[in-house]
Design goal:
Shape: flat
Strand order of the largest sheet: 1-2
Number of strands: 2
Structural class: mainly alpha
Strand content: under 5%
Helix content: 25-40%
Order of helices and strands: HHHEE
Length: about 100
């Protein structure tokens, strides 16, 4: 049976703050969820094959075919700032 002490412990593990006035209703809600999940134990799943994924989607990406890279000047054409073959970006680490 689920009690408020267990709910407080689970909330602490999840790093959640549960106000005392909400503890009673949260305990009842969690007990209902656990009761529902308990019903799944009674299902006969012996004819169901194990799954590695719930969905049947497949990779829809194009084949990875090597090709010639863009020329450096074309790749850097829209760079707001550059110095030679390098992009110039704002410094994000302290001054050297």
């Amino acid at each position: 049976m689920l009690d408020p002490k267990t709910v407080k412990h689970v909330a602490m593990l999840a790093r959640l703050e549960v106000p005392e006035e909400r503890l009673g209703s949260l305990t009842a809600e969690m007990a209902a969820i656990i009761s529902y999940v308990e019903q799944l134990k009674d299902l006969d799943v012996s004819a169901v094959a194990p799954l590695t994924h719930a969905g049947t989607s497949h990779d829809i990406l194009r084949d990875d075919i090597p090709h010639e890279p863009l020329p450096r000047d074309s790749a850097m054409a829209n760079a707001p700032r550059r110095e030679g073959p390098y992009y110039l970006v704002p410094r994000v680490i302290g001054e050297a």
